[in-house]
Amino acid sequence: MLSKGAIEMVPSLQRGRGFYSRFFLIRKKSSLWRPILDLRQLKKYLKKQSFRIVTLKDVLQLLNRGNFMASLDLQEADFHVPIHPKHRKFLRFMVAGQHFQFRELPFRLKTAPWIITKCFAPVAAYLRRLKHQVFPYLDDWLLKALNISALRHSLKTTLRLFQQSLSTETSHSSSLPEG
Known about the structure:
three-stranded antiparallel sheet
């Protein structure tokens, strides 16, 4: 996370100040480690934001026989939303005596789904203005088209748009058959 710029060292004069949360690792099924920032204490101070998000029911109602679909998984979408420097003091943790704070939106923050949805809404709106059928659900996007060539075009346009500002995890994205 440090090498990706998602976190930074807390300036020495600010160490021990601010809001510190517990940080630990859990093993994923893939034998990799998932970092966990326990934000339960901070959560008590955050206001719940109500918002509308695309559901599976919404998507199913818009599907027709013969539609072509592709999925896109944005890699660590929350790490693409910067935290204002004066708010980073609320997102601190310690590891091996070292003090860190998040520079970008941390995973598991109560307001993260609302923030991600609001940040990516203009992207979805822009793609829809271009007549692409997209269904964003946080960091997972579903694309729909009437034929394979339209789907390829939609996928290329969407990927190009995201690659201008984000990295995408293509290993979690569906690939289209050649042809």
